[in-house]
Amino acid sequence: MTKISEIGEFGLIHEIKQIVDKNYQNYPYLQCGIGDDCAVIDGGNGVSQVITTDLLVEQIHFDLLTTPVSHLGYKSVSVNVSDIYAMNAVPKYATVSIGVSESISVEMIKEFYQGVFRASRGFSVPIVGGDTSASIAGFLISITVVGEQKSELVSYRNGTKEGDVLCVTGDLGRAYAGLKILMRERLQMLEDIKENNQNYHPVFEDYKTVIQKHLLPKARKDIIEEFAKYGIKPTSMIDISDGLASEIKHLCRNSNVGVLIHEIKIPVINDTKLIADLFADDTTTYALFGGEDYELLFTVGKDMISKIELMEDITIIGEIKSKEFGVKMLSLEHEYVDLLQRSGFDHFKSGTSNQKNNLDNED
Amino acid sequence: MTKISEIGEFGLIHEIKQIVDKNYQNYPYLQCGIGDDCAVIDGGNGVSQVITTDLLVEQIHFDLLTTPVSHLGYKSVSVNVSDIYAMNAVPKYATVSIGVSESISVEMIKEFYQGVFRASRGFSVPIVGGDTSASIAGFLISITVVGEQKSELVSYRNGTKEGDVLCVTGDLGRAYAGLKILMRERLQMLEDIKENNQNYHPVFEDYKTVIQKHLLPKARKDIIEEFAKYGIKPTSMIDISDGLASEIKHLCRNSNVGVLIHEIKIPVINDTKLIADLFADDTTTYALFGGEDYELLFTVGKDMISKIELMEDITIIGEIKSKEFGVKMLSLEHEYVDLLQRSGFDHFKSGTSNQKNNLDNED
Prior knowledge:
alpha+beta; CATH 3.30.1330.10; Phosphoribosyl-aminoimidazole Synthetase, Chain A, domain 2; 7-stranded mixed β-sheet; 10 helices; 22% strand
């Protein structure tokens, strides 16, 4: 009997992929299976359907002590919709299933669905069904989102070539800064509960920008709409769930290319820097390995740079190189750092963490 | 704080539906949301997409002591595909997510996916993605299947009218008979484990037909194919997951009609009768309330009877009446029994059971 911790989550996904991949050739309408943000299915008439799904487990993916349950509802939908946008597609409908143990009240479930509903409205994706179940331990959530796009406009991870530029939306590391604050307050709260101390009230107000980014990440609907407006099709795209370094590695491995990014260009806001300083951490580490920002990382041909510059909130952080060049960052100290040397998180190997890994976004 | 057990699963689903239903009018492409076997979405060009999802939790929906994990993989896919067939649609692709605790080995997961893969092949539905997660307690499974059909051929629960005939595929109560045997053997096994007795080996061979029906229910692909072959479109349809009585009630409530079924016509095989006798139970009770047979219950106009008679493995068990007539069974003793008087199972109210209830198949 082999324990899962012996092979890790990526090892497990590899085993599953071996079994499931076997008969893909029998389904010519299947354009992409396991190995991208979404699976892609030819729906006929030049339109593709894309599908993504997440299974979220209390104490593995979230902690109800620091996560308001309505935020959890919003985030669960938002991060799946983010996978749809990462294919340059538009979400059409979603299902939401929940498993609830004795400790979960009807009021909590209603609040959860208020958050789900807010995301549903915000991203124009109706919740069309789902399932409810009892649970042995804690709160379980399973969400599936189906989207669509003209087949020729779907962006995969494997489409970029040497000479393309690498772009990122928004700013990075902020969600991780928020998590650091939440974890600190959580420890304090647990201590207070132990000591029956009623006096301590966590002050989140000062850290609102970073905590909100962690608890309520907003999938980048606006970016996909601007791509359509300006006639931009990214040559490759992925959403940043596990940190910039991990996502860059996926794009490079899938596209069989290398990359050079410039540390100085990685967009980080001041609030993130302040919190990194507070914990005596390195800000770039937050951006590279923090994860959960749910920004979009994408590439376009050089001919698109003038159009990209018309869009707000996008930063060009590097350029695609040959595979032989490797996956590197030019640091602030003008040194070339190999980004392949540090691996992402793996919650099967490292115990619980706030990281999640999808069948569809790992291979 | 309201406990879920106070309002029950149907009460909970009602609460969720209240929140989720609010903005359906904003999505004209949504043909049917919560309240049928699948949600139905207008995919354009006269084709509809249908979607169904299940969340299955160890110790709530299945027991690994009596369920080989490969069978569990097969069944998880089969029962979702069954929901697709219940809309008279064809499954196109599926996602499978799992949550696994420390007690689950890599070998078990591989076996699970062997079962998933067997169903995937048998029902021609590729597994295109999914998610993997750690779990705090036991094995978690979430499956979503998307299917399609010409919009005009989709069968709903609400389409039958007075004068139609009510038909059922296969035989009923067999899965429940299988469950009875498995539960008996499970008790024996638990006792043996407690007493460290190595001598007792359960003999399942004699009960193969009923146990297989419980562990490996086969969604009725053949029936949907025959409908297409003979040009039959059921006026309403549902799959039998919770027992004949419960499904009949759904059809009648949704279609605003009554029904008269004839106990003598309910198809039950001898093996089921023998086991009901063994436990001194009533065979019709197995058929009416046992559930998990995953046969199809459907209605057709009288003009279709000649075509239905060309098909194998279908029994006409009753006729649709006015709403005022009620929902009744003419018993073997020539008495009219009111089927609305006995309610289905509800695992939130009755503790764990082998019943499952979907958002999409309850309202």
